[in-house]
Amino acid sequence: MLDRRTMMGGAIGLATLAAARPAMAQDAVTPWPPAEHFKLWPGRPPGSPRVLPVPNYAMSGTPPRRELQLRGVPEPVVGVFRPANPDGRALLAIPGGGYRFISVENEGINVARTFNPLGVTVFVLAYRLPGEGWADPQDVPLQDGQRAMRLIRTNAAKYGIDPAKLGCVGFSAGGLLASSLAVAFDDPVYAKVDAADEQSARPAFAGLIYPVTSGDRMRIGKLPSARFDAAKRVSKPAPPWNAGTPPIFIVHAVDDPAVPFDSPAAIMDACREVGVPVEAHFLQEGGHGFGPRYLSPELSGSHWPEWFELWMKRVLAKPAA
Questions:
Q1: Which residue has the higher pLDDT, 321 or 217?
Q2: Which terminus in the chain has less CB density within 10 A, N or C?
């Protein structure tokens, strides 16, 4: 089981956002979901147990690393965080937590705080945790991820986004889900619910931040948490824009104690082999768990949000594959 307790300290973000960072008392509870949010499923989610998980949403850690974590997710929702000046780009932020909890603040809400000022609309996915009694637990996160992408695209006009500029960014175990969306966006993991499921679940691009990319590293009982190794399913881009593996962005620290370097390196090699655009930043130091505001500023990896922002713009400026 992936252990995410070993993380680096500090607190950084894009330089333009430093002054806007809100102060939070240690006993303050970050609200979830935000005022604007939507449910993924019109009724009970696929494979619901007779008794649904009991929500357990609580603050964890100490300042400056005190954050909201979710356990017991009975009903997956997507929090909507709109920028003051939207530019049409959108991100589905997928927090990690080893599939034991959801690091919704560090790797979700803080993504919105970082990228909203840059014009990006951010959707934070609070997906179901596979080990909480659902049928077909290995497919539960991908069910929620696919459904979220399809619903966002269906309502693109409502959110003021360009559906062709909707990407995803996943962290740690959320990186497993993000890489799953990149290679398995069309896998039939749930029965069609409504017209929204006619939409493509393929992200226009995928950011993988200290990601798990193979189900072999994530165990749910005796089952792997995914039916595949993402690196083995990377496919050559092909027209129209919603075919093949999308461009991939990777950030990973070589000294990561939780996920070995060769996991994201395999994704990079697979992309290069078939011609999928890929940019990778492998850090000498950084550890594990550095969301967009949690890495010491003296480390080069503290700039990864800036690198990702520049890369997103370059990728989206080019003709779609």
A1: 217
A2: N
